[in-house]
Amino acid sequence: MILGYLEKLNDAKTIDEVWDHHVSAMAHYGFDRLLYGFTRFRTSNSFGDRQDILLLSNHSAEFIQEFVDSEMYFHAPMVKWAAENVGACSWRWIERNREHLTPEEIKVLDFNRRMGVTAGYSVSFKDISSRAKGAIGLVAKPGLTQEDVDIIWARHGRMIVQMNNVAHLKMTHLPYSTQRRPLTDRQREVLEWVGEGKTSQDIATIMGVSMATVEKHLRLARIALDVETSAQAVLKASIQNQIFVLPR
Questions:
Q1: What is the pLDDT of residue 42?
Q2: Average pLDDT of 162-177?
Q3: Which of 53, 192, 212, 241 fits a 20 to 30 Å CA distance from 114?
Q4: How far is the C-alpha of 123 from the C-alpha of 158, rounded, in Å?
Q5: Whole-angstrom Cα Rg for the chain
Q6: Looking at residues 101-106, what average pLDDT do you find?
Q7: CATH architecture of the region 185-239
Q8: What span, in angstroms and rounded, lies between the C-alpha atoms of 229 and 198?
């Protein structure tokens, strides 16, 4: 199974392809709902702007609306663990530390219980940047207890961790956008030339268009990326692997 998993992952051209393949692979081990998050804009007390966080999940719309859109995850015990640690952790950790949980964290646990999110594991990834952080929550299928999950992990945990590590690395090296408006090919091209140190006049000459057209593309790119300057647009687009990419 693992060789086929890696081959398909290697051939994936988009994050959606990686995600769909990974969701299927984790279901094979008993984890049918996943929640993945990644940011390159973490600070000492936050994960950065919500719009800059890449979030992927196959949870129900009801769960996502409450847990993600309402930012309940800020108070989730295992999210807190993932932010402070690297590696894998059984959700048994919650019971062992229950007496230290805040009222807000208890509220998250009550919500999870109502949604059938009661057993699982969390994997927190090691990143090379102090501002980057990625983690994934693996939720066990209904009917499985935490004891069942820990038995599965004892047998396959090392394999599951490495599969998640590889999927994480693959996704963070593919183009992604956390904004509603993806960059157009022209917006991407002008940002690439700005990244090369070219002026608007240089870019106009290279592309065979007017300076006004170049400025328009830059303005729309800044809007799409939700930044104020073209330099910020280049940085953010580069971080999200949206520029200097090969055509699919």
A1: 79
A2: 90
A3: 53
A4: 11
A5: 21
A6: 95
A7: Orthogonal Bundle (1.10)
A8: 15
Q: Phi first, then psi: what are they for 130, rounded to 5°?
A: -65, -20
In terms of Cβ atoms closer than 10 Å to its own Cβ (0-12, 13-18, 19+), residue 18 is buried
What are the residue ranges of CATH 1.10.10.10 in the chain?
A: 185-239
The answer to whether 134 touches 36, Cβ cutoff 8 Å, is: yes
- Tell me the two tokens of residue 3: 């060789």
CA distance 164 to 185: 31
Q: Note the pTM of the prediction, 2 decimals.
A: 0.81
DSSP H/E element including 38: strand 31-39
Domain 2-172 indexed as CATH 3.40.50.1820: no
Q: Residue 178's pLDDT is what? A: 64
Residues 6+ apart with CB under 8 A from 166: 6, 9
CB atoms within 10 A of CB 175: 19
Residue 165 corresponds to which amino acid? Answer: N
Rounded Cα gap, residues 138 and 91, in angstroms: 10
d(CA 205, CA 214): 10
Instruction: Report the alpha-carbon distance of residue 183 to residue 195 in Å, rounded.
Output: 15
Structure tokens given for 147 = 């004891």
And the tokens for 169? 């690395």
**d(Cα 2, Cα 28) in Å, to the nearest integer?**
11
Strands 87-90 and 120-124, bridge-based pairing: antiparallel
CA distances from 158 to 21, 85, 130, 192 (A): 19, 17, 25, 40
Residue 247 pLDDT grade (very low, low, confident, very high; cuts 50, 70, 90): low
